[in-house]
Design brief:
This protein is an alpha/beta fold and 347 residues long. It has 14 helices and nine strands. It has a single domain, classed as Alpha-Beta Barrel (TIM Barrel), CATH 3.20.20. The longest helix has 16 residues, at 32-47. Bound molecules: S-adenosylmethionine.
């Protein structure tokens, strides 16, 4: 189907399109400039020129899952595994706090070593020390009771990418024991408990088609998340997908703009993966509507070990330097870095 400028304006005005229109928009670069300028207009209406900075702490790369795309999959016996102690995690928070950060994102593989009790202890310690900060968890699929216990301990946000809303694609990306329905249930459980919830997917994942991306957009409309994390798929040598191409920069940026138009309120990160596939990837992401960046607060000694994909960006610099550079970078892209708590704005 041939698209016109009016179709893009329709997305801006109504926040949705027909399946045929979405598919046409996903498969052409003809409207990218218009999409990005409308997306930038919407982000400025909702959030001004603010870009929120969240401190990311990757506290364990042990994982029981064996996702075919991921470098820290359980089947990668070459991966050097690490875990941070509670004290190390708290010292990352201390550093982040001194750099002005007011959100800490604790991410890990699905590591059974960290019992619910331990996670609650870590969360409540951070909460007691830094009551003015938001704590985000991204530690995978858990029972509703576990999610509730983390919430009661003080966590208020949870990131769990749905990865692929099409069952056929989900099955190609994951081993048989992983179920899309279980992952989706987790997202709805998290919402019901009262978390600000983040879903998302990789762009250009092996076997992914435009129809699969359309399923992702439709699923996100159903879930209506507060945060949406997307980034390009990037290959990793020690995975079964080592020979697949990386996802494309232009498609990722186009999708960010589409998501900004569909979900004006959403917090959309310009991800590390985006900056890994292109030096100006983050800038293009910000200019397409992304309004969050997550500099790494993990100790430099373990950063390279959280090895999801090859050439992961920002692994050598100390957190302070990294955060300083990122703030300069955000300003140079035309936006204002802010370290405050930055809750979702649905007004
Ligand atoms: N265990 C938690 C979970 O399952 O949500 C969080 C950690 S998981 C490694 C974080 C995200 O990394 C995944 O949701 C996935 O989309 C992304 N990721 C993994 N391998 C990747 C790759 N090769 N390229 C791009 N992103 C990747």
């Amino acid at each position: 189907m041939a698209l016109s400028e009016n179709t893009v304006k329709k997305l801006y005005e109504t926040r949705t399109l027909s399946d045929e229109e979405f598919l046409a928009l996903l498969t052409t670069d003809a409207w990218d400039t218009l999409l990005c300028s409308l997306a930038d207009r919407v982000r400025r209406q909702m959030y001004g020129d603010k870009v929120y900075i969240r401190g990311l702490i990757e506290f364990s790369n042990h994982c029981k899952n064996n996702c075919h795309y991921c470098g820290i999959r359980s089947g990668n016996h070459c991966a050097i595994r690490y875990r941070l102690s509670k004290e190390e995690i708290l010292s990352c928070c201390k550093e982040g706090y001194s750099l002005g950060m007011r959100t800490f994102v604790l991410q890990s593989g699905e590591d059974a070593y960290f019992t619910d009790e331990m996670i609650c202890d870590i969360v409540s310690s951070i909460h007691a020390l830094y009551p003015d900060c938001a704590i985000t968890l991204s530690i995978g699929e858990k029972s509703k009771e576990s999610y509730q216990s983390y919430f009661d301990a003080g966590a208020r946000r949870y990131l769990l990418r749905h990865e692929a809303a099409s069952d056929a694609l989900y099955r190609k990306l994951h081993p048989e024991n992983m179920m899309l329905s279980a992952r989706m249930q987790c997202l709805f459980d998290l919402k019901e408990i009262g978390y600000q919830v983040g879903a998302g997917f990789m762009v250009g994942a092996p076997y992914q088609t435009s129809e699969d991306l359309l399923s992702d957009l439709r699923f996100l409309q159903k879930l209506d998340p507060d945060m949406i994390g997307i980034g390009p798929y990037i290959r990793h040598e020690q995975t079964p997908f080592a020979n697949f191409e990386n996802g494309s920069l232009t498609l990722t940026v186009r999708l960010l703009a589409i998501l900004r138009l569909m979900f004006p309120h959403a917090l959309l990160p310009a991800t590390t993966a985006l900056s890994t596939i292109a030096p100006d990837g983050r800038k293009l992401g910000l200019q397409a509507g992304a309004n969050v960046v997550m500099p790494n607060l993990s100790p430099v000694s373990v950063r390279k070990l959280y090895d999801l994909y090859e050439n992961k960006n920002c692994t050598d610099e100390e957190s302070a330097q990294c955060s300083y550079d990122l703030k300069q970078y955000i300003r140079s892209a035309g936006y204002q870095p802010v370290t405050d708590i930055g809750n979702v704005s649905r007004t």
